[in-house]
Prior knowledge:
Layout: H1 7-28, H2 35-57, H3 62-89, H4 94-126
Helix pairs in contact: 1-2, 1-4, 2-3, 3-4
Amino acid sequence: MNQVPNQKYILEERTSDFGIEAIKLARQIRQDTITRPIVSQFIRSATSVGANYMEANGASSRKDFTNKIYICKKEAQETKHWLKMLLEACPECKEKIFELSDECRQLVLIFQSITNKLNENKFKKMNK
């Protein structure tokens, strides 16, 4: 039987892999007074995407789920900012930064799509 895996688990894996790849990049960067705070902020936001997605999947209510998904999107957007800063501070890591930037952009779009659907459903319920 050929079944499509549950999207929830695909996104769990994807956000987890994103955090792992962020950690790998951070380990490659030479730490100095410029890069240290950028790397710290980058790691916090990049790994937070997956952590908040896991929390969303264990949400106690629809409102809790919605809130966690919004946080996922915000953390992914923040990560995009830190990736831009890393590109300036560590141009020798350009290839990996571009790779992570693309994945981050895709995650933002996915979480935006989820929030749009949640808002559409909320609006439909309000107008019944």
